[in-house]
Amino acid sequence: MARFNLSKLLSSVALISLMGGCVSEDFDDLKTYIAQVKSKPATPIEPMPIIKSYESYIYVSDGLRNPFEKLEEPQAIDVVASVEGPGPDLERAKEELEAYPLDTLRMVGILSKNNELWALVKANDGVIHRVQAGNYLGQNFGKITAIQDHQINLAEWVATTTGKWREREASLALVE
């Protein structure tokens, strides 16, 4: 066993001595490069950016509505149903697309059949519906008044804060 350890020791010493011959102490090229870098003038450091001072703002909420309380719905049908004058037909059966808010519906195309224009409307659940003038869209009693190549025109009924109905125009543009 002593021979085996001695042979390992001798081979390790020989390997180390061979590797020592590979190392050179000549660093002239490195010293020249360092001298060149040090001889170049230093670039000036940019000044620190000017930081604007903070101006505090005092929010005064006296007399304003609390934004964290639920806003009363101005379109409560119970209150508005008793108002005299023009308004939507509250007795008619609702159509399927009246369950969706108008901003979740997308016009995706048009069809023409027997000189009648039909619009294709995609609901947010992915179902495509075929509608024509006289059908209803959206949750504000929006009746389709006209279908054009690039949009659907509607007449909606919205309740005012005074409890009366007001008609307004809306449209649904073709999505490219």
From TrEMBL:
Superkingdom classification of source: Bacteria
Pfam families on file: PilP
Entries under PROSITE patterns matching the protein: PROKAR_LIPOPROTEIN (PS51257)
Protein's recorded name: Type IV pilus assembly protein PilP
Provenance organism: Cycloclasticus zancles 78-ME
